[in-house]
Amino acid sequence: MSTLELVQTLKKDNGRVWNVSWHPKGESFASCSEDKSIRIWAKDGSKYTNKVVLTDGHKRTIREVAWSPCGDFLASASFDATTCVWDKKNGEFTCNVTLEGHENEVKSVAYSSNGLHLATCSRDKSVWVWEVAGEDEYDCVAVLNSHTQDVKKIVWHPSKEILASASYDNTVKLFKDDVALGEWVNSNTLHGHESTVWSIDFDATGERIASVSDDKTLKIWKEYPPGNPEGIPTEDKESAWKCVCTISGHHMRTIYDVTWCPLTGLIATACGDDAIRIFKEENGCDPNAPTFNLVATVERAHSQDVNCVSWNPKTPGLLLSCSDDAEIKVWKFKE
Amino acid sequence: MSRFSGVLQLTDLDDFITPSQECIKPVQIQKTKTSTGAKIRIQEDGDYYQVEEDGSAFKLQKVEITLSDCLACSGCITSAESVLVTQQSQEELIRVFEENKALKLAGKTSEAKLIIVSISIQPILSLAVRYNLTPNECAARLAQYFKQLGADLVVDMTIADDFALLESQREFVRRYRSTENDGVKNVLPMLASSCPGWVCYAEKTHGSYILPYISTTKSPQQIMGSIIKHWVGHNLGDRPIYHVTVMPCYDKKLEAAREDFFDVNTDSREVDCVITAIELEQMLDKDRISLDSLAESTFSEPWLIKQEPTEVKPNLTCHLGSGSGGYSDHIFKYAAKELFGVEGVNLEYKTLRNQDFKEVILEKDSKVLLRFAIANGFRNIQNLVQKLKRGKSTYHYVEVMACPAGCLNGGAQVRPKDGVTVKELSMQLEKMYEKLPIKSPEENVLVKDLYENWLNGQESDKCQSVLHTQYHEVQKNTNALNIKW
Questions:
Q1: What's the pTM?
Q2: DSSP-derived secondary structure for B431-471
Q3: B428, burial (CB in 10 Å: exposed 0-12, middle 13-18, buried 19+)
Q4: Inter-chain CB proximity B483 and A79 less than 8 Å
Q5: Contacts of A144 in chain B (CB under 8 A)
Q6: Burial code of A17-41, b = ≥16 C-beta within 10 A, e = fewer?
């Protein structure tokens, strides 16, 4: 019987904690909250303690924080329509870049795997790609208006310059740089969810995407490249993406977040029913119709909506969660 | 209404400014006082009737949002406000034409308006490609089409382009000298003002920070408006004029609706209705007319004082530089000569980040004297504005246009045929434009004549008031009701 054991509860903020993000080295993490602060947490002995509070970057709620792959930069997305990039060049974390351009609330921010691009998305329905052009220089290289509604979340492919976004328009979209055209283009649109797609995550290979939605389902999408042995038709030399698994009946309310562990292959979800659930793929199942089993549930993981879950990139089974109840929790998955 | 929205999204150059999520403009409704709550009945046709206690009912006023509402609101920052654009539609244009015809038929010629249609070069080229005509053939047939509809005069807008270039050139030199000699700040770089999408965006999102940099020279459309309403109107016996412009983008409708361009003397807008290439294509389709089947008519030249307008065969010309008007090239050449005595400079642009961002410099003894750029499309506007805000801009002038590839690829130009990309079409239009004979604005004797006879000479107060405008910061209103997690 697998379990998710609570390791530690952290509480400093006065409002809902929106997001937690592990540092790429896996030893520390950042959190952000409704009270407009960013906190950085690291271990003191066996316990995580709050090391740094950054408060002067944003005028409104900070919705998401993201580390650059090198771990030297931290980007924060805020409802004040800006994105800040913080670094420690001067010894202390300071905001050296403020990216403006979104018309209103920025919902999500992420660095590409090679650190050359930063993406943001907003309630203004657009997804922006910024090129890291040099010291504190970010140039906007694309403004993508493919979504017809609020864009909730963006994530990058684990190794390629492919960007995925999830929206209130019930779709997931993929974007990439079309070299021939010299433009970023929307290469795929994944239809299937019946309500807002709140979050998405790639698996370790980048060949599959997990998506979670207001329709209370978790979906698994698989890439079928041109010439795939399954004979799935593709267009214009682009891969096709197909939903190969829909997991329903477990979540009682909106699912707000999903994290797919690159080390263990486990999927964790954060739900509006206050629970955290862990799913595991059945060994040896058909890759074109995989089975994912619910292997652990923590019913009252938090006392309110769970907003975010995040697997540690270095330690298998180490999970963070945060909630509207202003708490951050550290969990350990045990088989 | 749908034809006003969505069209911009048909492009694969995904770089236009799009409409924002929802219209948040609060509208005032005239309410009559009632002692009790009112009963409202909804008719089958969707009309709302208020039912009184005695059983009588009266129709309630519908809330309508006008272009002026859009301009005064910070809710959207769109370049193609896909809201209820009623004053600027094909229907409205046809209605005015029909009304005028009816008056003429009834012998009430004095009550009829003088309908003047001004045509700009970009939609002519767009329609020329669409109907496989040469630019001059296309212009002559458009003139015929408008006259069939009921236009009295059809005129070439090049005269206004020339004014805009000449005024921009002088304005740049004034700004440069005031910075160099008097240390005046916030006047350089001068940013182009002829693109209303860009101006509207700057007013709504960057406010007082960017506006001082935007050239005060009116756009060609609005200069044309002044020429037609003030000068031509006066010349032709002060008859009421209905002025139509044919333009490459929807944003020009917004520009025409600005309060700054309402003329109190004639109690009308300088431009009453803006019609675009794509709408013209739709009108022709609807009337089942192929442009190439029409006869060729003439352009009128009503510019000279106390003379009947002369009729000429369209003889289109182009300006040096971009298909957006050639601002960067003209101002660069003029400034090089005026400020540094360098004549006959050869402009060689260097493409920067992408095709839509290029710069050109004037160097002397390895010192950069002038640094100009052309920045088209939303993302390049973003990078330019951010550079300016961070004090990292080194430019003296930037030709800014909201549409990728500039005005020849304007948001309301005819869409490419199946199998042709937007890029291929805009390259075709660029080639067609470059093949036209080049004419410099300084050579235009009509412009010289108008400066003297109408505007009291160059650099006069009248030039300032007629050919220049101002910009207004739009305050952001954050409405808590709009927040969505």
A1: 0.79
A2: HHHHHSPB--GGG-HHHHHHHHHTSSSTT-HHHHHHHB---
A3: middle
A4: yes
A5: 14
A6: bbbbbbbeeeebbbbbbbebbbbbb
Question: How far away is chain A from the Cα of B205, in angstroms, using its nearest Cα?
Answer: 8
Contact B77 A149 (CB under 8 A): no
Q: Give the number of A-B residue pairs with CB atoms closer than 8 Å.
A: 59
Please tell me the total number of residues recorded for chain A in this structure.
Answer: 335
Out of A99, A139, A143, whose CB is closest to B378?
A: A143
What's the rounded Cα separation, in Å, for the pair B402 and B381?
Answer: 7
Peptide bond into B302 cis (omega under 30): no
- For residue B358, the surrounding DSSP H or E stretch is strand B357-364
For residue A208, pLDDT beyond 70: yes
Alpha helices in B287-377 (DSSP H): 327-340
B382–A140 CB contact, under 8 Å: yes
pLDDT tens-digit map of B145-186: 999 999 999 999 999 999 999 999 999 999 999 998 888 888
Rounded distance between C-alpha atoms, residue B297 and residue B155, angstroms: 11
Q: Write the CATH number for A22.
A: 2.130.10.10
What phi and psi, each to the nearest 5 degrees, are found at residue B173?
Answer: -65, -40
Which of B369-373's residues contact partners 24+ apart within 8 Å by CB, and which partners?
Answer: B369/B336, B369/B339, B369/B340, B369/B342, B370/B332, B370/B335, B370/B336, B370/B339, B370/B340, B370/B396, B370/B397, B371/B395, B371/B396, B372/B328, B372/B331, B372/B332, B372/B396, B372/B397, B372/B398, B372/B399, B373/B328, B373/B397, B373/B398, B373/B399
DSSP tag of A322: E
Number of domains in chain A: 1
**Residue B65: what pLDDT?**
55
Which among A63, A128, A143, A146 is the top mutation candidate for probing chain B, defined by the most B β-carbons within 10 Å of its own β-carbon? A143
**Is the per-residue pLDDT at B77 higher than 50?**
no
Full residue range of the structural domain in which residue A328 is found? 3-334
Partners of A100 on chain B (C-beta within 8 Å) are 386, 389
Sign of the CA dihedral running A101, A107, A111, A117 = negative
What are B21's two structure tokens?
């999520």
> How close does chain A come to B222, measured CA to CA in Å?
29
- Checking DSSP bridges between strand A38-44 and strand A28-33, what pairing results, if any? antiparallel
Complex-level ipTM:
0.72
d(CA B274, CA A236): 39
Write out chain B residues lying below 8 Å of A140, CB-based.
379, 382-383, 386
**With contacts defined as CB-CB under 8 Å, which chain B residues touch A150?**
21, 484
Residue A153's Cβ-side half-sphere holds a number of Cα atoms within 13 Å equal to: 24
Q: Cβ B379–A140 below 8 Å, yes or no?
A: yes
